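Technical annex B. To support the medicinal chemistry partners, we prepared a structural model of the target in complex with zinc ion, based solely on the information shown next.
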Amino acid sequence: MVNLVAAVFLVCCANGPLWRAVASVLGSTAGHWLWLVGVGVVLVLVFNSLLSLFSFPPVHKPLLIAVIGIAAIADYYMASYRIVINGQMITNLLETDFREASEQLSWALLRHVTVLGALPAGLLVLTQIRYRPWRRELLARSGVVGASLALLTVLLLANFKALLLFGREHSDLRMYVNPTYPVYSFFKTLRVNYRAHHKEKETLRIIASDATRSATNTRMALVYVIGETARAEQFSLNGYHRDTNPQLRKQNVISFTDVESCGTDTADSLPGMFSHLGKGRYSPGEAKKYENLLDVLQRTGVQVAWRDNNSGSKGIADRIKYEILSHERDPILCPSGECYDEILLQNLEQLLRANNGDVLVVLHQKGSHGPSYYKRSPKEFKLFLPECDREDVQNCDRQSIINAYDNTIVYTDHVLSRLIDLLKTQGYATAMLYVSDHGESLGENNIYLHGLPRAIAPRQQTHVPMIFWASPEFYEAKAIDPALLAASRSQPYSHEYLFHSLLGLFDVQTTVYQPKLDLFFPARKRTSSPSLR
Ligand SMILES: [Zn+2]
């Protein structure tokens, strides 16, 4: 009986997003009320059977409390951000550091969990559950499960075709079922990670083992800036109506306007920005099995370093020089325990000076990471006010959210421009390539944040900025025609191009390199040949 009440409670009270999704799918179809009731009954039967199977006396109450608690938290995030808790979300959660996680806590969450989690759990604690002797309890439970299955079968058979079609057409609705889908995702992700981890330890597959670099007498440094959660359409360089690039606009940069990310969140995208796998073959799990761009460059003699102000490199920088800067104690750049992105520039000049060969420095930004956008930009860069200054962004008015987000772009503009100023003074071939890992939704169609499955993600989550700057010495040394390169700025590119483009810039010769995926190749004077594109 307690299980049945819990099942009804979960279906009615902790599945708002599911009901909204089902209702919108049904629209005004004839008999949609009947469908809604049908879905409700099916779910109650399934939940009740699952609870009856797993909740035995010693762990009965703790299990129910855990299930209700998980459902309340999952329901809050699903409803607030219009997301589904899939494997990607769980991976994000597992790879997020404590500070990022604590940023997600808010009064709204606390209120939600109190009403939907703590109150029912309290009632449950006070309820006395009477059990039958164990044989009869077992028999009774088998009866419940058997009867539920029988009833489900009858329901399915009665309307087999319609249900089958409905299920096929809207199979994504299963992702909204709370808490079974979040729990399923959690265990699935643990299994996938466990496997990937162990395989990686066993055999990391070497790529481009034939890679060589011809010795040149010109020294070069490339700074590859990995942006965070920056979306292309918010850059005035790409036509945004607000001036979010007041500084870069004065630098001689090329902004590529049509670049697509390989994923919709950091864990999914970041490995793809260093992977040789390319479209069709790439997935973060698959990429973990192989070396990446940085390994190849390092092997051919490039001095590679990674500086991080985000939550880590997701394993990409495991074998190279790595600095964590997000916990620095600079009173100006890190006033509240976390650092603004300018921390990435601190001592960068010394780092460049200390290396006298060809250098690649990766700077991993905190960028526009949400939902607390307002924490990402110092006061002087808050050009757009009022700013949403709370964690539960969905409770701010939309314009103030956009203001806070736009200010993060203004600040990134400043960071990149300062970096260019620094590179300009080095007196040898220097360049900067900035690419964001994925975009962000800012309330279009009521969708916020990012991480929706790529197939259904809105363009704002996958359309990313990519900005290139190089010194005259660099253009000269690499025989790149800046005008030709600038002319290609509206070509469609994707993260897939990055691996080959960087191999090209460092003049690495290997059979893995594909000139047609090197965005600089067509602009290189010596090798430019239209037939190759
Ligand atoms: Zn990200």
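Notes passed to the chemistry partners:
Residues 228-229, 265-266, 437-438 surround zinc ion (CB under 6 Å).
The chain has two domains: 2-197, 223-523.
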